[in-house]
Amino acid sequence: MQKKFLAGICAASFLFVGCRSDEVTPVKPPVVKVRQVSLSDNAQTENYSGVVRGRYETNLSFQVGGKIISRDVQAGSRVLAGDVLMTLDPKDVVEQSHSAAAQVNSAKAQLQLAKTNYNRYAALFKEEAVAAAVLDQYKTQLDAAQAAYDAAIAQAQQSQNALEYTTLTADADGVISNVNAEVGQVVAAGQNVLTLVQTRELEVVANIPENKIAAVQIGQRVSVDFWATKDLVSGTVREISPMADSASRTFAVKISLPDLPSNAVQLGMTANVSMVSVDTPSAIVLPLSAIYQTGDAAQVWLVDGGKVSLRKVEVTAFDANNVQVRGLAAGDKVVVAGVHKLRDGQTVRTAN
Predict the structure, then answer these.
(1) What is the per-residue pLDDT for 163?
(2) Phi-psi region of 18 (alpha: psi -120 to 50; beta: other; left: phi over 0)
(3) How much of the chain, in percent, has pLDDT values that exceed 70?
(4) How far apart are CA 287 and CA 211, in angstroms?
(5) What kind of fold does domain 46-55+198-278 have according to CATH?
(6) Does domain 31-43+281-351 have CATH number 2.40.420.20?
(7) pLDDT at 135
(8) Using N-to-C axis directions, what is the helix angle for 91-126 and 132-164, rounded to 10°?
(9) Which distant-in-sequence residues (6+ apart) come within 8 Å of 21 by Cβ?
């Protein structure tokens, strides 16, 4: 009787265990967050500091040498075209002008004498009183006197121009940004004494590192905002320096600003230049969390057919949040979170 009871308990136990095994729920594949690679992933925004400058900056100088006797402007002065900026002592130039005028009078007298002699001998030649050779001699003297007179006239005009050159005037509206000479100083012709910045057209000059300059192109549209005015304007890359600065190893990029909203933007103000740089089509920007590092090799998990597999990539650049890699193609689905919990060939579910 006892044996039959124990057998019944065992049979019931086996039946109970069998029922429980039928109720076990299968383990579902883990859910992973993925990003599908597209060609637009290679675009990123770079920010550079810049300085507002005038597009046209002219180094002004006198066309003659002399001693400065007056300076009518200083750094920061706004001037109009034709305004007098500096003046040289004109005494020496005036004396040269007087000397040139005297040379003109002398040459004119010599020309009159040569004309009189030629006319006299021309009349004698008609009467066959002198030979043709004699007349030719006086004709040559007349031509020489005429040439000397013309040269004296030109010299006198040059001296008159030099007298006008003792006054330095502005050739356009603008601002004096630099003063390089003072009253009492003797300057040579062509020596820089002032710098005039024309204010009718402003631009921003930004210094681009040598590892980023390849992504900047002439005509590229950029965004420029100013720390002082909070204005945001659109600019265009106008000029790229062909050579890096010897000290900073950066390239100067000039950005034209055709649509400034107000006159509040002044020379020398700080600007922020935002450029959308596009690297080669094979360069993709991903979150830093997508990288699965094993030793020195950087890899990412790709999802294909519901399973994950590792793909080796080349890291070209990175910052605190993102990494730029090569080795992926458009359409690839990359796991961007929880990469260290996966194994090769594992079945997963995706969640964008």
Answers:
(1) 85
(2) alpha
(3) 88
(4) 22
(5) Elongation Factor Tu (Ef-tu); domain 3 (2.40.30)
(6) yes
(7) 87
(8) 160
(9) none
pLDDT above 70 for 279: no
Rounded to whole angstroms, the Cα distance separating 206 from 131 reads 82
The torsion angles phi and psi of 266, rounded to 5 degrees, stand at -115, 160
Q: Choose among 274, 260, 269: nearest CA to 227.
A: 269
Distance CA 214, CA 236 (A): 16
152 close to 100: Cβ distance less than 8 angstroms: yes
- Predicted confidence at residue 127, as pLDDT, reads 86
- Determine the Cα–Cα distance for residues 299 and 296; give it in Å rounded to an integer: 10
**226 pLDDT above the threshold of 60:** yes
Asked if 65 contacts 187 with a C-beta cutoff of 8 angstroms, the reply is yes
- As given in the structure block, the two tokens for residue 334 are 């990359």
pLDDT score for 43? 57
Which DSSP state fits 22? H
pLDDT value of residue 102: 92
Place of tokens 């400058």: 53
CATH of domain 91-164: 1.10.287
Q: How confident is the model at residue 39 (pLDDT cuts 50, 70, 90)?
A: low
Specify the pairing of strand 270-278 against strand 283-287.
unpaired
Question: Which amino acid, 40?
Answer: S
Domains 31-43+281-351 and 91-164 fall in the same CATH topology = no
Q: Please report which helix (H) or strand (E) contains residue 70, including its range.
A: strand 66-71
| pLDDT confidence band for 17 (50 / 70 / 90) | very low
pLDDT band for 51, please (50, 70, 90 cuts).
very high
**pLDDT exceeds cutoff 90 at 180:** yes
Q: Specify the 3-state DSSP secondary structure of 146.
A: helix
Q: Check: CATH 2.40.50.140 for 57-89+166-197?
A: no
Distance, in Å, from the CA atom of 173 to the CA atom of 193, rounded to the nearest integer, reads: 17
What share of the chain has pLDDT > 90, as a percent?
A: 38
What is the residue extent of each domain of the chain? 31-43+281-351, 46-55+198-278, 57-89+166-197, 91-164
Measured from the Cβ of residue 101, the count of other Cβ atoms closer than 10 Å reads 15
